[in-house]
Amino acid sequence: MTVELILFFAVALVSVGSALGMLFSRRAVYSALYLVLNFVTIALYYLILNGPFLALAQVSVYAGAIMVLFLFVIMLLGVEQLPEEEPTRWQRPLAIILGVALLAEAAFILIFRGTPVMSGTVTEISPEFGTPWTLADVLFNQYALPVELVGVLLLVAMVGVIVMVKNVKKGRPDPGIKFRS
Question: What is the spatial distance between Cα 128 and Cα 137, in angstroms, rounded to a whole number?
Fold first, then answer.
């Protein structure tokens, strides 16, 4: 078993654990924080695959901007105004274990980043592969329409949430959307 395989399984364990924590968390804010941890593990996958630009974009765009938007919507909707419950006993130790594992994996990747962890022959990749310029060229030339459609979809979703919240706060009838606790 190689070091790369062990590292992959360690990151996979944290990734799956944080995804399960997001799914089974009873509080919306905790679910969002588990999702941030999951986004960071995906960035670690990009670092393992020697894609530092993609890792930086993953952390800054998803774990930064998108999660700020999610938390803003959660706070705007007031989902956390529900009665307070005690967290289950397994959540805090699981969060601590996953956080420590994530920090250990990140330290390992940063320390051994310059040394090759694979044995055997590797196919040579062109120096332009994965650079911001080639990614931007593909993204904004070949996939310009899907990128614009996703931007419009996110804008419409955000406006829809704001309209729903304003209707509920003004005392108008509930639009029929039920939030789980």
Answer: 12
